[in-house]
Amino acid sequence: MTEKKGRQSDRPPEDLKKERDAFIQQFFRKGAQLTEELLRENERLRDKITELDAENGKLRAHLASDSAIRDLLRKIEELEQEKRDLVTQSVRMVAASDRFNSRYSEAEGELANLANLYVALSQLHSARSVRQVLRNLKELLAQFLGAGAFAVYLVDGEGSELMAIASEGVPVAEIDRLPVTKGVIGEAFSKGEIFFDETRDVSKGSIEDPVAVIPLDFDGRTVGVIAIFGTLPQKTEFVNVDTELFKLLGAQAAPALINARLFTDAGRKVPGVQAFLDLEE
Amino acid sequence: MAEYSCLIVEDSPMMRQLLVFALARVKNLRVTEADDGVDGLRKLAQTKYDVIITDINMPIMDGLKLVKRVRSDPVHKDTPIIIITTEGSQEDRQRALQLGANAYITKPIQAPQVIAKVKELLRID
After folding, report:
1. By CB count within 10 A, which of A96, A262, B4, B10 is most buried?
2. Model's pTM, two decimal places?
3. Domain holding B27: CATH number?
4. Total tally of structural domains belonging to chain B
5. Which of B8, B11, B16, B17 to mutate to test the interface with A (most CBs of A within 10 A)?
6. How far off is chain A from B98, nearest CA to CA, in Å?
């Protein structure tokens, strides 16, 4: 009876068995649920990883793009600097070119002036008669200086009066003899100095008020003057080359006139070689 | 060797010399001188020139007559002509331009002005 009792006590009561089975079932059900949840979570995390990978890819691409932009900006800056250098260089070159052109222009002007002076000199000395020298002198004054009215005076034998021997723009007959000390003409003659006023309008002068007076030198003596009474309307001032021409005329006009006179007086004969050999003795 | 030729028609030896000096600085330009219009026509009949420079006031045949004759010459009817005038002779200048002159230079002559005008008409840089 005890054994039976014991055997009976080893066996779980029916209600406990049911409870146990229910628990086990619930346990497995919960386990299955948890597993399913874990699988879902795992799936979600995989998706998340994929998303993050994609995002990461995009960020990497973005970073690469930023780097390219930085490179481009750097390149632009370099090009801008190169452009600034080129502009500076170009400005320097333009300035150098301007200087060169200006110098070239000056040299051209100087060359033209020298040519004018050479032509003036050769024309003065190529004439072999007083008439021709005076004609050339008039043309020189008109063409080179733009002189509209002028006269060539020579001093008389006594050295007291200046007499006009040729003129342009004013008839010689209307030009009075002048004492060698009278007015600016007399003053320029007496002092042997070129007279002209740089500040005045040289187209507006007169016989009484000449705009320039050039003393004519021969062998260290002043033998006459060229008086310019006025220039052409478009010529209102004397420039550098004009003053050079004044000097040239002052030094060369009288010798040309006197040589032509002496040559005419000598019957236009060229002296024989003996005349030149005699000079050596 | 000269590529271009220029005829200067001017009675004043001084002016001719000035023009010759000025034009000597134009590269490849051969310059011929004539004393007046008749001499100019004679030279034009012998040679074809690329440009003609002529004074207006000249003895025997003046510049206006020369321009007229040149324009009726089949060889030189299109040759550029530069006339030399004084500031006061506007009528002559107008008449010369009407007759077919292409340009004018006013006395007193400035070499750079002559060079520029000749280069312009010959289209030389």
Report:
1. B10
2. 0.70
3. 3.40.50.2300
4. 1
5. B17
6. 24
Cα distances from B70 to residues A105, B15, B80, in angstroms, run: 34, 22, 10
Residues of chain B neighbouring A120 (CB-CB closer than 8 A): 14
Give tens-digit pLDDT for A67-109.
889 999 999 999 999 999 999 999 999 999 999 999 988 888 8
For residue B38, give its domain range. 4-122
Q: What does the H/E/C string look like for A181-194?
A: CCHHHHHHHHHCCC
Complex ipTM value: 0.76
* pLDDT tens figures, A125-153: 999 999 999 999 998 998 888 899 999 99
Q: Which long-range contacts (CB under 8 A, 24 or more apart) does A218-224 make?
A: A218/A254, A218/A255, A218/A258, A222/A155, A222/A189, A222/A190, A222/A192, A223/A154, A223/A155, A223/A254, A223/A258, A224/A152, A224/A153, A224/A154, A224/A155, A224/A162, A224/A165, A224/A189, A224/A254
Q: Supply A73's token pair.
A: 């900006």
